[in-house]
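Dock IPE; give full complex structure.
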Amino acid sequence: MHIAVIMDGNGRWAKQQGKNRVFGHRHGVSSVRDTAEACAELGVKYLTLYAFSTENWFRPQLEVSALMTLLLKTINGELNTLLKNDIRLNAIGDIDSLPKSVAKELREAIEKTAHCKRMELVLALSYSGRSEIVRAMKQIALKIQSKEISLHEIDDNLISDSLYTAGIPDPELLIRTSGEKRISNFLLWQLAYAEFYFTEKFWPEFNKEELYKAILDFQNRERRFGKTSEQIAS
Ligand code: IPE
Ligand code: IPE
Ligand code: MG
């Protein structure tokens, strides 16, 4: 199973406590830890977390740099836990646009956990679903231009394989916290048939219990993929 999460509401949670937004981001890290641990325990094979969008670069400079520092510290601080729990780290997005120190730390952690098998933890960083599709289209256009492939070879699979998420199955479940009901440029292609689960809880309040609730809700859905209920039942 693949679960994708839009971790939202850190700023509003902090505001509620009378604290600044960065306080919220810091507390969000424990929810990441909790969620990753719960997923690994449940046998979830892929967990993709939307941690920073390309649009988030336009936040106040101080918040952006605090987020980058937090990211660096978290990757560094969690590496041993990832290894101990046999969790492979991966990243999707424009990694080259991250500060050099962050990109380096990230690449090293990805390399060091490459052999891990229990679960893959995918961080969406400087990620934009539309940019991902544009990038894929360019790759495909180049292959056509160089006659490496012909027009009729363009299909769903080729497009999937040209995205950052090549080789990763589409998420079955998308969770968004904080009560917002939108996908904010996340996994536009990959979420084609995902079940959506929205909770009012802010991300720093999200924990194992909340994850179980989302999964239970998902298990009670009838995924019809365009067919009728009767067809699904038989
Ligand atoms: C999610 O929380 C974290 C990031 C987008 C980096 P927000 O920072 O968006 O918190 P709200 O939505 O403003 O409360
Ligand atoms: C989406 O949250 C991006 C991440 C969770 C990293 P935002 O808070 O940036 O999204 P909008 O602006 O509310 O759509
Ligand atoms: Mg938000």
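Observed: Strands lie at 2-6, 46-53, 87-92, 119-127, 173-176, 195-198.
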